[in-house]
Design a protein that fits this description.
17 strands, 6-stranded mixed beta sheet, 0% helix, SH3 type barrels, OB fold (Dihydrolipoamide Acetyltransferase, E2P), 6-stranded antiparallel beta sheet, 188 residues, mainly beta
């Protein structure tokens, strides 16, 4: 059993019979009273965020996790199939468990995080930036580069993002998967 002194960003803990990832923490020692640890937690299964304060020295249960590289093969209605790039073992992961899953294309490398003790996939992480082709958008107009106006664009993965007016169908764009936003145009 670990204590609050072992808390670090990215550590997974078991709290109230759920698995939580520590997103942010702060050790606080007020002038009066006992020290405590203020944390921001994210539920691994549901994605729900929670702020919780642990008293200093409180016992916590740290969950061992491991990140493994998998290749995205194809998706179905409920989930996606992945193949381990080292031993070619295939697994199935539900779509809601993949962060940025709408930007995955076949052959893409994805990090799948596993609960080591139970050999169970917890969630998947798409790379922070991906380059995708714009399959449909309204035509751009010459001279529309000075404003911050945007228009919707459909990407090759069928995801829709807002792009600047000068982006045309067939252009390649760099997408920030963390906030599902256009980053820049890419020359191919």
């Amino acid at each position: 059993m670990a204590s609050t002194s072992d808390i670090k960003n990215g550590v997974c803990i078991k709290y109230n019979n759920d698995l939580w990832k520590i997103v942010q923490f702060q050790h606080v020692k007020p002038g009066k009273g006992a020290a405590f640890v203020r944390t921001k937690l994210k539920n691994i299964q549901t994605g729900k965020n929670l702020e919780h304060t642990f008293p200093a020295g409180a016992k916590i249960e740290i969950i061992r996790i491991e990140t493994r590289k998998y290749q995205f093969l194809y998706s179905e209605d409920t989930g996606c199939h992945f193949m381990n790039v080292q031993d070619y073992e295939q697994i199935f992961v539900e779509k809601h468990m993949i962060n940025g899953g709408e930007f995955m294309k076949e052959g893409e490398k994805v990090d799948i995080v596993f609960h080591v003790d139970e050999e169970m996939p917890l969630y998947g992480e798409v790379p922070q930036y991906v380059t995708l082709e714009v399959t449909y958008t309204e035509p751009g107009e010459k001279g529309n580069t000075a404003t911050n106006s945007t228009k919707p664009a459909t990407l090759e993965t069928n995801a829709t993002v807002q792009v600047p007016l000068f982006i045309n169908q067939g252009d390649f764009v760099k997408i920030d998967t963390a906030n599902a936003a256009y980053s820049e145009r890419v020359k191919k």
